[in-house]
Every structure is written in C-alpha cells, then in structure tokens.
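ok here's the first one, seq then struct tokens
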Amino acid sequence: MKTIHRLIILQVFLLVQLSVFSCGQNEQHTTINISKLKTGNKKYTALFKKDSASLTLSINSYGKATGHLLISYYESNPMAVSKSTDGNIVNGTFKGDTLFADYNFKSDGNETIWNSNPIVLLHKGDTLIMGSGRILSYLGRNYFDPNTNIDFKRSRFRFVPAEAKK
C-alpha cells in the first residue's frame, strides 16, 4: 500500500513538474527593439481638423516612457477645455516599435476625479501614430481588448516632433 501511495505521489509530482516546465514554452517572447528610437526628452504636436494635441515624453534605454499629453478638442466654448498639463500623465513601455501606455487625466473641470484610459502609439520614422481599438473595462480598469486589432490607419492624431512643425 505504501508503494502505491509513493507511486501516486511520484506521478503527481512529475505531472506538476512537467506542467510547470511546459507553461510558457509556446509564448512568443517580444524583445524590445528601440534602436531606432532615440532616448531622452521629446516634444511632439498633432493636429486633426480643429483638434490639437501636444505630447512630451521622456524615454529611457529600457523602453520606459513617461510624460504629459494634452488634447484640446474644438468646442464653441473656448473655456471648456483646460489648458493645463497638470495631471495629464502618460506612463508606458515600448514593446518593439509600439508604446503601450496609460493616460491619466482630469476632465470636465473636475479637479478631484481622475480618469484613466489606455493609449497606444506606433513609432514610424520620427512620427508617433495614435491607434484606436476596442476598450474593455474590468474592476474599474480600462484596457484594449486583446482579441481585436488596434487600428493605426484611421488615426486621429499623428504626432510629429515639435521642431518639425515650425
């Protein structure tokens, strides 16, 4: 009876080891290639019809990016959009040529309630193209639906270096 228990325990142990070892074997490991992306502080601007946006990013050698994003939507009341960049924070990481980030902001003149949305920016040449996609929410956290593609072709904002806009 003891040998049967030992065999069962040994089989369970081997199954657990095998499953732990095999987990992640089929995952594709994405390497961060930011060789074409210059690190440091960057300033970008974008226009879409009567809407405008400005983006400042600080990018380190590991692909981490932090900065500020201010989007000004055209409205008949010019006082409706805050001109302050306080609180419009972007934090994210480059995966390949794409920045996946969270955009934390205060809206509608409410200085106490924070909103957070995911953003994705494709790095092409010296341009950052803002993508759009289906956003899901779980436990108050917004994220892009992993089962749908992010669209960069119909981008609302294409950010170019601020120096190039002159």
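and now the second one, same deal
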Amino acid sequence: MWTDVTSKENGGLGQPATGSGNTPTYNDILVKYNAANGYKRYWDDAAKAPYLFNGSTFISYDDPQSLYEKAKYVLDKKLGGAMFWEYSNDSTGTLLNALADGLKGNSYEPEIQALEAPDASNEPQTNEDLETPEAVEVPVQ
C-alpha cells in the first residue's frame, strides 16, 4: 500500500508516493478498500493485475482474475508452478481456488469476484490455523 500519491494521473499507476509499510489482507481489501469507501478498481493489462486507488492511496494485490492470468501464463510457458502474495492473508481460500482452477485449464468466471465479506471472528490468527489445500496436478505438455 502506498499513500500520499502525488497525482491522480493514470489512476495513480506509476505516480510518486510514500510506502506505508501496511499490507492489508485480501479479506481487508474486500471489506475496507472497496467502492463504498471511495476506492476504484483498475486493471493493469501489462502486469495482468488489479490495483485500487482512491485519489491518494494506491494498493496493488492479486484477485481471482489475476490468478487465472498467472495460471494461464504458467500453462502457456509450460512452467512448473506459480506463486502469489500473500496466500496466508486469504482466509476464504478464494485466491488458491482461483489459481488451482486456472492451472486445471478452467476459464475465468467473473462472478467469482462477488464475494461476501468474511466474518472477522472466523479469520485465522496464524498460518497454523489455515487449512492445507489438496495438491493440484498440472499436466505438462
């Protein structure tokens, strides 16, 4: 998250800013950094990733659409794997499921973006509280 973005040009992308040291969780992004709170979602087509901007604060992150794009790249380039930041910050499992679906060759379904805000009382407190997902086999061509 970058604050004090000096220009609204290009939706805040590539503008001078101050690093905040704050990294919101994916759950926080869904609940706090949304249109209701003045943030607009943009898509960086070069990076194939979303970002949020409210005129002064810029947040880059991964979402289901960007993870499908990463999976497509992995399959197209016949790579051995993918990563995203930050798996442990998504207690819903939405991001991992999107990556797994993409690695299976499934198409991106935009309605996957329509998520309900997670119940804060059920959020895991440590990485040990997260469930371990099943391994996904990726066919290598």
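notes on #2: Residues 112-136 have pLDDT under 50 and may be disordered. The chain has two domains: 2-60, 64-126.
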